[in-house]
């Protein structure tokens, strides 16, 4: 089972993006003191995907700065299923404790499949 867990939004100004997107979506920072380069926003009420705001150096017009994090109960099974329907594996330099696998859709747009276990069933 997959669900959209986070929409990862690359920005040049994290505090400004926190203010804008919190107001625009009626979201709030998940943590009381978000960092200057990373924050997770969640709905104030009810359920919905998180908005993960991350600092990037690239300009919006020149690089892909946004992607989906798809939460999987069984990551390996979902990755194989996605590859069988047209996704491709992306050569990626993973940190040792990475809980995600980077894939690309048939048009080349990258997304992550995150091992989320039971979290994949909530939302």
Helix-strand layout with pairing:
Blueprint: E1 2-11, H1 14-25, E2 27-29, E3 38-43, E4 50-55, E5 66-72, H2 75-84, E6 88-89, E7 100-104, E8 110-115
Parallel strand pairs: 1-4, 5-8
Antiparallel strand pairs: 1-5, 2-3, 3-4, 6-7, 7-8
Structural account:
The protein is of the alpha+beta class. The chain has one domain: 2,3-Dihydroxybiphenyl 1,2-Dioxygenase, domain 1 (Roll). Helices cover 18% and strands 37% of the residues. It contains two helices and eight strands; from the N terminus they run E-H-E-E-E-E-H-E-E-E. Strands 2-3-4-1-5-8-7-6 form an eight-stranded mixed β-sheet, with helices on one face. Strand 2 and strand 3 (38-43) form a beta hairpin. The longest helix has 12 residues, at 14-25. The mean pLDDT is 90.
List keywords for this structure.
alpha+beta, 2,3-Dihydroxybiphenyl 1,2-Dioxygenase, domain 1, 123 residues, 2 helices, eight-stranded mixed β-sheet, 18% helix
Compose a concise summary of this entry.
The chain has 123 residues and is of the alpha+beta class.
């Amino acid at each position: 089972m997959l669900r959209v867990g986070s929409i990862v939004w690359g920005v040049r100004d994290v505090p400004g993006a926190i203010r804008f997107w919190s107001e625009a979506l009626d979201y709030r920072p998940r943590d009381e003191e978000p960092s200057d380069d990373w924050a997770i926003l969640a709905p104030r009420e009810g359920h919905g995907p998180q908005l993960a705001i991350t600092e990037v150096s690239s300009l919006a017009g020149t690089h892909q700065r946004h992607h989906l994090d798809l939460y999987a109960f069984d990551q390996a099974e979902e990755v194989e299923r996605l590859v069988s329907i047209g996704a491709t594996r992306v050569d990626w330099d993973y940190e040792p404790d990475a809980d995600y696998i980077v894939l690309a859709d048939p048009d080349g747009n990258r997304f992550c499949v995150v091992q989320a276990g039971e979290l994949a069933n909530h939302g």
